[in-house]
Specification:
The longest helix has 14 residues, at 108-121. This protein has helices at 9-19, 36-44, 58-64, 82-88, 108-121, 136-145; strands spanning 26-30, 50-55, 72-76, 96-99, 127-132, 150-154, 161-167. α5 packs across α6 (136-145). With 171 residues, the chain is an alpha/beta fold.
């Protein structure tokens, strides 16, 4: 968790808009924490969509087990292992990967492996959305995925958060 205060509805809405969730079929959430954003994402996904959460903390993973939605799969593990986790859950390449994991609090080598795993496994034309209060995610991800397509600051959140969006080319 990057913050002890849950994401505001304004931040959640900004993430939903940046993610284009209504048209996504396969979505991965990295670091869902207590599941507040997860529940919001499920409200915006279509009936035939799937949401896979990858949570490192066994405590938060257990809290996420309380979400009873057939479109939702809860996995405890590291985002570094994205490829193996997708295979394990027969997910295929996600259209969208949303990350709330605090890149600023992890070793640079781990953060780089996470960003590379996202790029390697994201579907062509897919989106990587990261919401962060520090710019570390851009410093890590830009060399791997290029400059973000957008970065918006949501001030109506404590702390204020930036929502970054990278697009994987169609080719």
């Amino acid at each position: 968790m990057g913050s002890i205060i849950p994401s505001s509805r304004f931040l959640e809405q900004r993430i939903v808009e940046a993610s284009h969730l209504s048209g996504a079929k396969r979505v991965v959430e990295l670091g869902p924490g207590t599941g507040g954003t997860t529940r919001t994402f499920l409200r915006h996904l279509g009936e035939d969509a799937r949401l896979l959460s990858i949570e490192l903390s066994p405590y938060f993973h257990e809290l996420l087990d309380e979400i009873a939605d057939p479109r939702f799969t809860n996995h405890v593990g590291s985002a570094e292992d994205l490829a193996e986790i997708l295979v394990l859950h027969d997910m295929g390449q996600p259209d969208v990967v949303i990350s709330g994991i605090p890149f600023s609090k992890m070793p640079e080598a781990v953060a780089t492996r996470v960003a590379q795993a996202v790029k390697d496994n994201l579907a062509r034309g897919g989106r990587f959305i990261a919401y962060q209060f520090r710019r570390d995610v851009a410093l890590i991800t830009d060399p791997i995925m290029g400059s973000p397509a957008s970065c918006a600051l949501e001030l109506r959140n404590i702390p204020p958060m930036r929502v970054y969006s990278w697009l994987k080319p169609d080719r």
